[in-house]
Amino acid sequence: MTDFDVVVVGAGVTGLTVANRLHAAGKSVLVLEARDRVGGRLLTEDIEGVRLEVGGQWVSPDQTALLALIDELGLEMYSRYRAGESVYIGADGVRRTFEGEQFPVPATTEAEMERLTKELDRLAAAMDPLAPWEHPDADELDRISFATWLAAQTDDAEARDNIGLYIGPAMLTKPAHSFSALSAVLMAASAGGFSNLVDADFILDRRVVGGLQRVPLALAARLPEGTVHLSEAVTTIEWDADGGTVFTGRGSYSGRRILMAVPPTLVNRVQYIPALPPVQAQMRQHISFGLVVKLHITYDTPFWRTNGLSGTAFSPYALVHEAYDNTNEDIDGETRGTLVGFVSDVKADGILALSPEARKQAVLESLAAYYGPEALNPVGYYESPWMADEWTVGAFGTSFDIGSLTRYGSHLRQEVGPLSFASSDIAGLGFQHVDGAIRMGEAIFRRYA
Ligand code: FAD
């Protein structure tokens, strides 16, 4: 058995950030990863001849920790394709094209959306995303669902559906009636304001050449050989005030500190001897993953561009609530066009109950409503499988149920003896994003150094 300064459980961006900083500071560190690869929710794969970003992929200007790391690692970026008109399908079922970020809705709905955006910006500005429970209206906002809050704000259903879309299906990937208004404000505050979430050109700004998984791959490559053990899931941790011993199917490793760099939902999957304090075990039963199916659909050509479309499409009423041009601009000679689309929360439940063929057909018909009948004939179709992957079990990230952010939030980042907890799911700025994973990793390093 070897003694390490720190044993890190999980080789996602959070765990690898900590390991890199500790190694550079001369500390001994071991990283144990359940999967046979590093990167966690970041995965770039060649699927039937098309390179796809199965997990996270976009980088936005507010993600300064991620931008700094991309720079430090010497990686390059390119802009998401966005020339041309976007498509919106409204409550009346009519397809309309538009430019800019304001959906082509009736003037009264537009005014309501602007008013709600300002109100959410105001609430977010009063929040420290690291401590949402300290918000002046925290108790009130955490007791009601985001859907209830929206209903109290406006009678305009289309305004409610669109504002709900940005945080429900598009971010927390849960129905707006299942998370609190406080969680919605946290999502906005963590991205620098609700206005940023509304602006697809901001929030989905750039991509990394070669795919975002190059970040964790480069972090792992900087560690000495043997630092990262793959295919070694941690099952049990014995701990006391002086340190802990981590058990996997292959061996045991002791460290003065143990970092659980895994989503909160997977913290409870490990057995702790002695057990974690009651509040820790209780708290994580009130956190759950959202559900979204990320879809990649490849065509012989990016036909929508020829039709004057950017590929950007939205509708709270469509099966695929948002879609974008996701063609690999960084591959020389790429002539095919790829769309990325998302089916979220209860709509995801619905399509996952269908046969694969019926699911594909439903998705293609939803795309055809945005882009026309050419969308019905792809050369490639792929559904990211995060919801069936035991080391994630959902997408994009986790969030609290109603009332639990104020009840338990202050315990989220608390240490227990030698045990610490970190992941993008418990970040402040960059919550649920790679930026938050890096921020959590840096914060743990500062605590350990
Ligand atoms: P993870 O990546 O989940 O890493 C945790 C690691 O711990 C995993 O490798 C897991 O295998 C391992 N592990 C778990 N339990 C154990 C155990 N018992 N023993 C050993 N190892 C264990 N973010 C963005 O910034 N931009 C985007 O465009 C974006 N899009 C996304 C799209 C999808 C489909 C998904 C799923 C996520 C997306 N995200 C995006 C979110 C982003 O990918 C995550 O926030 C981030 O990668 C999380 O990093 P992490 O290290 O905190 O956690």
Helix content class: 25-40%
Summed up, the helix count is 17
> What is the general shape?
globular
> How many domains make up the 3D coordinates?
3
Structural class: alpha/beta
Query: CATH H level of the largest domain: which superfamily?
Result: FAD/NAD(P)-binding domain
CATH class value of the largest domain:
Alpha Beta
Named CATH architecture of the largest domain: 3-Layer(bba) Sandwich
How much β-strand is present in the residues?
15-25%
Q: Which small molecules are bound?
A: flavin-adenine dinucleotide
The main β sheet shows up as: 8 strands, mixed
Structural write-up:
The protein has 449 residues and is α/β, with parallel strands linked by helices. The protein has helices at 13-24, 64-72, 107-125, 138-143, 146-153, 157-172, 181-190, 194-198, 200-203, 214-221, 264-267, 278-283, 303-306, 345-352, 356-371, 404-408, 434-448, and strands at residues 3-9, 29-32, 44-47, 50-53, 58-59, 77-79, 85-89, 95-98, 206-208, 228-229, 234-240, 243-248, 252-260, 271-273, 287-289, 292-299, 309-314, 322-325, 337-344, 380-383, 398-400, 419-421. It contains 17 helices and 22 strands. The protein is globular, with a radius of gyration of 22 Å. Flavin-adenine dinucleotide is lined by residues 9-15, 32-35, 40-42, 55-58, 233-234, 261-263, 266, 270, 294, 384, 386, 391-392, 395-397, 423-424, 432-435, 437. Its cofactor is FAD. This is Putrescine oxidase.
